[in-house]
Amino acid sequence: MSRYTGVTERDLREMLDVIGVESVDDLFAEIPEGVRLGRELDLPAGRAEQDVYEHLAGLAGRNRHCDEEVTFLGAGMYDHYVPSLIDTLLQRSEFLTPYTPYQPEVSQGGLQVMFEFQTAISELTGLPVSNASVYEGPSAVAAAGYLAKLETRRSKLVASRGLHPHSRGALRTHAAGYGMEVVETPLTATGATDTDALAAAVDDDTAAVFVQQPNFLGTVEELGELTEAGKSTGAVAVCAADPLPLGILRPPGELGVDICVGEGQTLGNRLDFGGPSFGFFAAAQRFLRKLPGRIAGETRDVDGKRGFVLTLQTREQHIRREKATHNICTSQALNALAGVVYLSWLGKRGLVELAELMLRRTHYAREALALERINPGPVIREFAVRVPDLDALFERARAEHINPGYRLGRDYPEYEDGLLVAITERRGKEDIDRLAAVAASVREKVAA
Amino acid sequence: MSRYTGVTERDLREMLDVIGVESVDDLFAEIPEGVRLGRELDLPAGRAEQDVYEHLAGLAGRNRHCDEEVTFLGAGMYDHYVPSLIDTLLQRSEFLTPYTPYQPEVSQGGLQVMFEFQTAISELTGLPVSNASVYEGPSAVAAAGYLAKLETRRSKLVASRGLHPHSRGALRTHAAGYGMEVVETPLTATGATDTDALAAAVDDDTAAVFVQQPNFLGTVEELGELTEAGKSTGAVAVCAADPLPLGILRPPGELGVDICVGEGQTLGNRLDFGGPSFGFFAAAQRFLRKLPGRIAGETRDVDGKRGFVLTLQTREQHIRREKATHNICTSQALNALAGVVYLSWLGKRGLVELAELMLRRTHYAREALALERINPGPVIREFAVRVPDLDALFERARAEHINPGYRLGRDYPEYEDGLLVAITERRGKEDIDRLAAVAASVREKVAA
Amino acid sequence: MTTDLDPRAGEETLTIFERSREGRRAFVAPDCDVPELPVEELLPKEGVRERPAELPEVSEPELVRHYTTLSSKNFHLDEGFYPLGSCTMKHNPKLHERVAALPGHARLHPLQDPEYAQGALELMWRLQGALAEVAGLPHVSLQPSAGSHGELAGLLLTRAYHEAQGEPRTKVLTPDTAHGTNPATVTMAGYQVVKVGTAADGGVDLDDLRAKADADVACLMLTNPNTLGLFDSNIEEIERIVHEAGATLYYDGANLNAVMGIARSGDMGFDIVHFNLHKTFTQPHGGGGPGAGPIAVSDRIEPFLPTPQVVRRPGGNGSEPLFDLDYDRPRSIGRLRGFHGNFGVFVRTYAYIRSLGGDGLKEASQVAVLNANYLKALLAEEGIAEYLPIAFDRTCMHEFVVSGRGAKERLGVKTLDIAKRMLDHGVHPPTVYFPLLVDEALMIEPTETETKERLDHFACVVRAILEEAREDPEIARGAPYTTPVRRLDEAGAAKRPIVRWRPEDEND
Amino acid sequence: MTTDLDPRAGEETLTIFERSREGRRAFVAPDCDVPELPVEELLPKEGVRERPAELPEVSEPELVRHYTTLSSKNFHLDEGFYPLGSCTMKHNPKLHERVAALPGHARLHPLQDPEYAQGALELMWRLQGALAEVAGLPHVSLQPSAGSHGELAGLLLTRAYHEAQGEPRTKVLTPDTAHGTNPATVTMAGYQVVKVGTAADGGVDLDDLRAKADADVACLMLTNPNTLGLFDSNIEEIERIVHEAGATLYYDGANLNAVMGIARSGDMGFDIVHFNLHKTFTQPHGGGGPGAGPIAVSDRIEPFLPTPQVVRRPGGNGSEPLFDLDYDRPRSIGRLRGFHGNFGVFVRTYAYIRSLGGDGLKEASQVAVLNANYLKALLAEEGIAEYLPIAFDRTCMHEFVVSGRGAKERLGVKTLDIAKRMLDHGVHPPTVYFPLLVDEALMIEPTETETKERLDHFACVVRAILEEAREDPEIARGAPYTTPVRRLDEAGAAKRPIVRWRPEDEND
Ligand SMILES: Cc1ncc(COP(=O)(O)O)c(C=O)c1O
Ligand SMILES: Cc1ncc(COP(=O)(O)O)c(C=O)c1O
To answer: ipTM surpassing 0.90, yes or no?
Structure first.
């Protein structure tokens, strides 16, 4: 099955001759007997490309994807339209196959993309500096916690239950590593972060405070008040933000937030059953030399020509090793490219138009469903409602190839009968009305 | 809806100013009132990319394609596996978007591809010269007729009924233009071209004789004998060949054929409901300066560097105008690229392996179907059988998502109950056995 | 192993055949799951190859690298300005590639039963309607494979029409500025070419037309705007003259990008028009195809249209109408090609029309004409106009022609040299030496998808080349310098044509 | 408007923000089909933006040209030799992109109910099995996002394991040749790094290891073959020492490409291994990701694996087994990230494993090692070896390290200069200045998908550079000359960092 190697019999003879060994096996002489596998790997035999394609297509065919149902499922990843030019660009070998740009003279394409990505994220978040990407949303939250630890030397992290459950989970897992405790603060009766409870949890040993905008239920948080409360003892204010609503929401940077991270899937990336996408990481100027991961900087070459390089590498693991600001090496460059191309495709006015369309449809959907509201206040992109008979709703919706949303009970015992409904530019009035009709039929069934 | 144009209000003012007119309408002043449309075009309004995608995906979803049924339908286009690297290469802007290579210094990629394509087609057909492509198979047959007219100044064309019905149709239509008569000669009782009838039809006014290998029924013709018979009075011997079987069949060039043309869809191209694909056109050395369309030639640049150019352009319409050897300008360059990449992907041994696999499976299928044979002799790729109750066969096959093949009665009244069954490397034993089972059930039904 | 500066120098240009090494492979055959009978048992002895075709033996990595590296030697539309006159090098929207690749399109067999191909047939039927509306001619055939093939169809229809009237006629009129495919088509359709002169204002010479439009003329082939980029405002008079002579009027639709939604060939009295979907409707040019040349015709020509035609049959019991292929066309000229046309091209064209809508198509033409007139004005400025004078000083449509006569006479620099020097500035030259009417012609068509900055930059490039030529004409004469190869010996290639690689070549 | 020879010189490098022109657009919003209530009615006043984000305003053609032109400035794997040590730049098969793009994969929501995602869950489950077999460790978690993330997971598992034994332990041993991510991970996991020395033969200094492997050591992180490209034949002794100290043994799988099907980390006694799917298993590197770093662990570590885990539950009434996500893992270290890992990467890896099968994976390692030893032998020839002596003169595995000490001392040309000069010869330099142990290191990993001709050509390039440097060292010191930009001021970029474009920058 050597379609990917090119050693002919003649090559083999000549190469062994030059090396000065009899056979390829001789090259493995230094591997002690005891650790040699000494048998074939127990794996299915290699197959022709067409057979592998059939097998993979068969597996793919057993998944119900977003073009086969009308989905209101969100909870962190969303069914947005990805413009065709993104795949056209990402499939170019010039973007798809290079390594991290260690030789800048032959990587100006990748480095300028990083620089433009950093600019776009800074504009969205209202914070002056951004790195070139981290893995995804939840681990970006964990990375912010680590930065706060290095910055404040304190040991407590305060996180609102408004944060995505996966963000809170990743934060706890990483914090166990870097020796910090995570304290969660509750939501109010109307599904917003409880400012007072947050203020109460913050003390002199609090390194960072975490809120999410909009929060997991879709509530538009009072970010200004929350940040003020959180920073009362000098903690780092971290906001996990959904990038598209930032088209019309006040940028976290303008509300006292120190670090704004978030999930980048909605910016021109695939759902891909949860990854790969990218995380973004923007911060106040003073954190520039503490940022995790790659950063591209503008400079000039010997002829005075404009160019870009990886900069401030002394923060990174390949230079500072055990004193690095983070252990990340390979990150999400190709997915970040999709992000900046998508933001340029939307453009200055397009982002506003898309965010406003989502805002209005979210509002329309909540009205149309006419179910009891868990977060009656302002919402964007998502909202939570109580459903008298969730199983019935799912069953009837499924019958009409509708996926009604996320069962909140999986992560929030307090919302056992809660349904999280997500809205994108792909969910038109017609789709929403069909969901509303199903909801109505369930309501009547329960009422009858 | 100006996502594809970029004239801002400021640009418009500045440009009108430089031109010296008040408005864009002024630029159309010379169009007489009587021919101005003066109303909106009656077309559906422009839509956002995502809406156009939905509409096109909706239309595509109403077609049953080759991944949704096991198809034995052939008759000129076949369900072969296209390796992934072909789309990867064809979607590169560097191949997809340039025009015909009029400026060779910046078109060496396209010109070298044409040169390599010409080499591969010459190797397949056993003829020394080939052009860079024509539209598709049937119009390539018509182009061969035109070349024979220019070459011999005679007025009759003799074509076996073994030729694809579309080739005979296109030949008749074009011949009506260039003033030639087409005489068809019959098949024998065993579905092969009747050599004697062919010899009889050929006379001193015959410009060209046309046969197909394998013929429309899949019969492997006695090409040597037919060519000899056809050339008895100096006519040009034209063979329309299926390229993949040429992997193991004797090349037409070695059997006295002067011109070998054919359909290129099976060489790495899509089915695409009939097009675009490409036609190939190879010929004996003496016809080099009479070939239709583009030809790439090897040469050197001023520094002695190897390069390629469009050559012998004096044959072509943009130079010789009314004395051109053919009126073709835009041809099938991108599809021909897929053809040469596919042939290089198969490679010297792969083409033989693929052709042998098709030969053996064709034989196996004919045996398994156990139906009365219209062409009992040697067959490759396709074979014709009589089916007692064709409608029943189609009905039962359809129920199992099998498309049993082509109803010969559509083009051959003499085979009213005939079924043409096509075999490719995608039709494995399992598929063939399922078709055989359906055929058996129909046989029993008729027998009962 | 040379050690000079050019990284590519070390690696002589190799064809894929010269990269072949016995034993390498990219293809792995699927297992043979049927009895492996010897070939001799299944084929007649003398019908079998003695030696395999000498195709290359390469691994997938080397195959991909070979063609990827080759592609990077091509100038292309997603890189820079490509103002090839009469080719309409407008942006190829990327949505079109995605919808064309949908399996429902790309994997659909042409002979699939119509009831399982309703999506494809409806798309073709709707495209026919849209093209009819744009052309102003009611009946459309999508079958012709490109513009030239559409021209041939047009003249075969003209022949069938005249023969049905009992007058076979022998001549076809074409303006001397016509594209080479027009006269080539006339000959191929068995007619005799008669050239019609061009008047001082660049339009058809009406007197010459009246003189030549006799009873033996079957058809006048015209494109309006013409290949000088000028709209022939005498079109109504031309139509009258031709129709009075009993001839048909054929419209070469290559220049349609100037007048979409503004003027329609049907309203100009044309009987037959071909479209170039790879020009006006964004099918990518692919290095020389594929394209498509559908035709729209008037009522009197309809009966002769090629077979099959896509039709909509009224649904039986009120069900959805059935789209179908109609083969029952007794007076049709018959088939032009295999199956029913370049469907993949129709998908892209239809996506373009549904993306822009009527007002979007009209806006495209308006901006194409605006951009052409703006660039013409920039090139009319001092420092350029003296060397590249405009051929006809009138408002142009989507393209305009300048003459390199000034540069040749004053600077000793031919249009060819100017074009080659442009290659060093990262722009593709305009069409050169066409139409033949204009000495040292440069035909410039910017299209609507270029920005003002690109047009300004092109004018700067032209100005810089002329300035440089004033100081040292040798530079342009030796250009290009920065391209993968420099000027090539085209004469030698024609004298001793090498049109394929040969194994024995390897050692010469 | 400069008129010098470089076609690109005329066009200063512009960011997409500087190409923006007010009013241009590529995005057309779908119609608003719900009541257009004013934003103020739906959002709190102070929560709304005052001014829109300054994103660029460009049309689709300009957007595509901007990024296509940028891409052509990148050296890439489908262009030439890319021997970056420890990065395994092997060919990325194109089949993998096709299957990854299937809607059943690319368009599948991560929270889709398991019964509607059986294809994806089965693929993950089968991949877990295959990786377990390759690693020789039974339990696999696919969740880590890259190698470093896998390392962190490994040390968090180690922490959980030791805490469960009641001994928290504080130190982690890493060889001084370890990749920078190892020590960085140790710190991030709250441990203290203790470096272990390297013996003369390039393997772990056993005495130093014995001295440092005390009861406070939680884990030894090792990669075998190591970053010098040498297989540490004392691995069984190392395993004994570490396990006797009660520590876990962590295997950095970045160098797995040398030993697939030949030697397995599980059989070497490792407890935890991470894979770099973007190295060994062909996930394209994408300019710095995405990748994936799944881990395989021994029985004693399994309980602590991240949540959720992909499991196969026995089907109910004999029906198909249900593949599912298991969240009920009481002793798990919890989540490392969102959802369940980089599924798109798993699709490509799984396609690779099913394409090659066991014997194909083994052949890949054998050829990778053959190619490395062959290239090492070529560089050991006279005219090269004096300047670039091999660091450890032993049979190497998939990579080897040479030292630029000879060139520095004899020619006054540093490894950096040699690397930059390689750029002018159309090859990508090896990894430079790593591992730190070797002075002026050049770490060369050819991989199995390169041909003998490419290795010969690379040796010629090295020889030519050294020959040239003997005559004129200045040439290498000033290299590169033919790249889009020449050497860049990295110091300046760090001193006055400019990490984003600013509107006002336009006029400075
Ligand atoms: C004016 C004109 N007419 C006809 C044609 C022929 O069209 P095609 O190349 O599609 O055959 C062209 C093509 O360049 C043209 O420019
Ligand atoms: C030896 C070694 N270990 C670990 C890593 C880190 O892997 P990743 O880049 O996937 O985080 C690398 C990456 O280059 C490496 O070479």
So the answer is: yes
